[in-house]
Amino acid sequence: MSAPKKIRLDKASKKLILLYADREFELPAEYLRVYSPSAEVRGHGIGQGTLVSGKMHVGIEKVASAGRYALQIFFDDGHDSGIYTWAYLRELCDRQQANWQAYLERLKYEGKGRDPDVSPVKFIG
Q: A Pfam family this protein belongs to (predicted)?
């Protein structure tokens, strides 16, 4: 997978904008953070991933190239260990809606939320 033609960080809207030959995508910082390819989020093997919650307000401090194959994203919560390959970034673009829905459903199932200042109440019964 080739790199986007243009990459722009919009700190005000907390989005990374990627321009490809076929279209433009806007990826919110929260989406990129909860789908980080880091070992901290994905784990070291199948089924070892961690559900990241409470990142509604996260922003991106900066992005840097990681060789010629990826981006490193520096989030304002201190997370910076994910290396987003061009192929993985494009996958996040193409699957954004489905990924986001799956994430919201998993949060609900596990009784967690997007807002770090609000603790969801899980009713039993």
A: GBBH-like_N
